[in-house]
Amino acid sequence: HVQLVESGGGSVQAGGSLRVSCVASEYTESINCMGWYRQAPGKEREGVAAIALGGGVPYYTDSVKGRFTIARDDGVNAIYLQMNSLKPEDTAMYYCAAGAGGDSSFNPLWYAYWGQGTQVTVS
Fold first, then answer.
1. What is the pLDDT of residues 73-95, one digit of tens each?
2. Of the candidates 59, 57, 49, 53, which has an alpha carbon nearest to the alpha carbon of residue 29?
3. For residues 119 and 38, is the Cβ–Cβ distance under 8 A?
4. What DSSP assignment string belongs to 37-85?
5. pLDDT-based confidence at residue 115 (cuts at 50, 70, 90)
6. Which among 44, 56, 98, 103 could bridge 113 via Cys, Cβ 3.0 to 4.6 Å?
7. What is the pLDDT at residue 1?
8. Phi first, then psi: what are they for 121, rounded to 5°?
9. Alpha carbons 110 and 90: distance in angstroms, whole number
């Protein structure tokens, strides 16, 4: 069973930066894409960024383009989300996801595995 563990959340002032990380306990043939979702209180979970393992163009939701960068390190089964120029509306619980595929629609059905989340608060 694949486990995803996020880390790196925290509190920062508007305009600041944070990096969140996600490590997968293993890569299996069922994992070809990993990504980040977020959920703010009272709102639905939304896709933020995703990237295919082994190569491929990353996807970003429009609200974070130019500010967030997703990266992967296949050697340690990890992905990262570098978040710059943070805004209060970026405040949310950030979840790592892994699954068989993914595209710019950020359909959560692509992802079979989910982490517990890490809180990001921007004030």
1. 988 889 999 999 999 999 999 99
2. 53
3. no
4. EEE-TTS--EEEEEEETTS---EE-GGGTTTEEEEEEGGGTEEEEEE-S
5. very high
6. 98
7. 84
8. -125, 125
9. 23
